[in-house]
UniProtKB/TrEMBL annotation:
InterPro entries: Aldolase_TIM (IPR013785), NMO (IPR004136)
Name this protein carries in UniProt: Enoyl-acyl carrier protein reductase
UniProt-listed Enzyme Commission number(s): 1.3.1.9
Keywords: Flavoprotein, FMN, Oxidoreductase
SUPFAM superfamilies noted in UniProt: Inosine monophosphate dehydrogenase (IMPDH) (SSF51412)
GO molecular function: enoyl-[acyl-carrier-protein] reductase (NADH) activity; nitronate monooxygenase activity
C-alpha cells in the first residue's frame, strides 16, 4: 500500500507507531519497523541523551529498516535538556524525528543538516500550516480522540483530517482514534496518507508496559478516559481512575497546578507502566482502547491493519473478491 508518506519515510506500509512516554523503547519500535511500518523511540523515556543514543543502537541490532525518535517539548515539573536531546537525535543515525509540543523551528537547521525527515505533530490545521511554512517534511494531525494532548479546539478526526487534506501541500498522517484497518481505510479516503497509532501499539507483546495495563486497555471502553488540565488550557486525555478524577475535581473547584502537581508527577505514571498498578497515577490512553480486544505482536498489528484496510477498500470500491483491478481503483480513491 504505497502513499506519499511511505515514499517519504522509506517504509512499506502507511502505519506509524506513536512516540509514547515510557513505552517507545527499542523492542517495540524495532518490531514495528521490521514489519514495514515506522517504529518510534521516545527520547525523553531515556534519562540522558547518551542513553537515547544507546537505545537507538539497541534497536538497530533488531532491525535495519527506518526508525524514528520522538521528542515532545512541553512544560514539565523538571524540564529536560531539550537541545542536548536534539543533538543526540541528529547524531544517532535515525532517519526520522517526530517533534511535538513546541515549535521545532529553532532546531530545523540542525535536523535538516543531519539529513533527518521531520514529522511534526499538530492538533489543528493552523498549526499544521505553520509547520509546513517552517519547512517540516510531514505532519501528524491529532484529532480530539487521541491520548495525551489533543489541543484545545476539540475537533475530532472526522472533520480535522479532511480539513487538513484541503489545506496542506505536504504529506500527513492521521492520529487519534485509530486502532485497526477500518481506521486506516477511513483515514486514506479522508485524505490522509497514513495513520499514527499509539494506544494500539501500547497493547502489544513488545510494549514494555506491565501486563496489568494491557489487560486494562482490553477491558476498558471508549468512555473510560478523562480530560485533565482543561481549566489550565493544557488538556490531556488519560485513563479514568481515582487519581485523574481527583485532578479534574480539584481544578474544576478553582485549584491551580500546584494543587495537583504531586498527583500528576511523571514518576507516578511510570509506576503504573512498570508495576501494573493502574491506580498509582495518571497514564495516557486514547479512546481507541474501545476498539482493542487483544494483545498481539506489534508486527502482527501492522500486517493485519494493512490487510484489513485493503479488504475494506476493496469492498467499498466494489472490487472483485480476488482483488483484480483493485490497485487502479484504489489509486483513484486515494489520490485526493
Amino acid at each position: 500500500m504505497r502513499t506519499p508518506i511511505t515514499e517519504l519515510l522509506g517504509i512499506e506500509h502507511p502505519v506509524v507507531q506513536g512516540g509514547m512516554m515510557w513505552v517507545g523503547r527499542a523492542e517495540l519500535a524495532a518490531a514495528v519497523s521490521e514489519a514495514g511500518g515506522l517504529g518510534i523511540i521516545t527520547a525523553l523515556t531515556q534519562p540522558t541523551p547518551a542513553d537515547l543514543v544507546a537505545e537507538v543502537e539497541r534497536a538497530r541490532r533488531l532491525t535495519g529498516k527506518p526508525l524514528g525518535v520522538n521528542l515532545t517539548i512541553l512544560p514539565t515539573i523538571d524540564p529536560p535538556p531539550y537541545a542536548d536531546y536534539v543533538r543526540a537525535i541528529a547524531d544517532s543515525g535515525v532517519e526520522v524525528i517526530e517533534t511535538a509540543g513546541a515549535n521545532p523551528e529553532p532546531f530545523m537547521d540542525l535536523l535538516k543538516g543531519a539529513g533527518l525527515t521531520v514529522l511534526h505533530k499538530c492538533t489543528s490545521v493552523r498549526h499544521a500550516l505553520k509547520a509546513q511554512r517552517i519547512g517540516v517534511d510531514a505532519v501528524s494531525i491529532d484529532g480530539f480522540e487521541c491520548a495525551g494532548h489533543p489541543g484545545e479546539d476539540d475537533v475530532p478526526g472526522l472533520v480535522l483530517v479532511p480539513a487538513a487534506a484541503d489545506a496542506l501541500d505536504i504529506p500527513f498522517i492521521a492520529s487519534g482514534g485509530f486502532a485497526d484497518g477500518r481506521g486506516l481505510a477511513a483515514a486514506l479516503v479522508l485524505g490522509a496518507h497514513g495513520v499514527n497509532m499509539g494506544t494500539r501499539f501500547m497493547c502489544t507483546v513488545e510494549s514494555p508496559v506491565a501486563d496489568e495495563v494491557k489487560a486494562a486497555i482490553v477491558e476498558q471502553g471508549e468512555l473510560d478516559t478523562v480530560l485533565i488540565f482543561r481549566p489550565l488550557r493544557n488538556t490531556a486525555r488519560v485513563a479514568a481512575n481515582e487519581v485523574s478524577r481527583e485532578v479534574v475535581r480539584l481544578l474544576d473547584e478553582g485549584g491551580e497546578f500546584a494543587d495537583v502537581r504531586e498527583l500528576v508527577a511523571g514518576s507516578r505514571g511510570r509506576t503504573v507502566f512498570e508495576q501494573g498498578d493502574t491506580e498509582a497515577g495518571i497514564w495516557s490512553v486514547g479512546m481507541a482502547q474501545g476498539l482493542i480486544h487483544d494483545v498481539p505482536a506489534a508486527g502482527d498489528v501492522v500486517r493485519r491493519v494493512v490487510r484489513q484496510a485493503e479488504d475494506v477498500l476493496r469492498a467499498a470500491l466494489g472490487a472483485d473478491p480476488d482483488g483484480s483491478g483493485v490497485d487502479q481503483q484504489r489509486g483513484s480513491a486515494l489520490s485526493r
